[in-house]
Amino acid sequence: MSRKMLTILGAATLMAVAPAAAAETIAVPYGDLDLPTTKGQARLASRVEHAIRDVCQLNRRISGSRLTDPEAVACAKLARLQSRAQLAAIMESSAKGG
User: Could you tell me which of 41, 45, 52, 91 has the fewest CB atoms within 10 Å of its CB?
Assistant: First the structure.
């Protein structure tokens, strides 16, 4: 079995005065998926979304509120944007038989 992985980068902007950023990466395995199929592609998209939710801590709430932390939302938005190019390259490669 090949050990293909997609790396998700989550950049969580720290609150504040200086625009500092902390980055965390997570590998998403996909070597077991049949990517030329719609089902395989949907499964990879689901894995990526779960990884983004984990790395960006989308379940984190603002203290005393049910609102999602805006930093987590911004992190997820950026991670989704960055993962699109990786996913496109993976899909193109699998379409060519790679």
Answer: 45
Tokens standing for residue 19: 């625009």
Residues 30 and 44: beta-carbon distance below 8 Å:
yes
pTM: 0.74
| CA separation for the pair 10, 40 (Å, rounded) | 24
Provide, for the chain, the percentages of residues in helix, strand and coil under a 3-state DSSP scheme, each rounded to the nearest 5: 45, 20, 35
Which has the closest alpha carbon to 71: 28, 25, 26, 20? 20
Q: Residue 68 CB: number of other CB atoms within 10 A?
A: 16
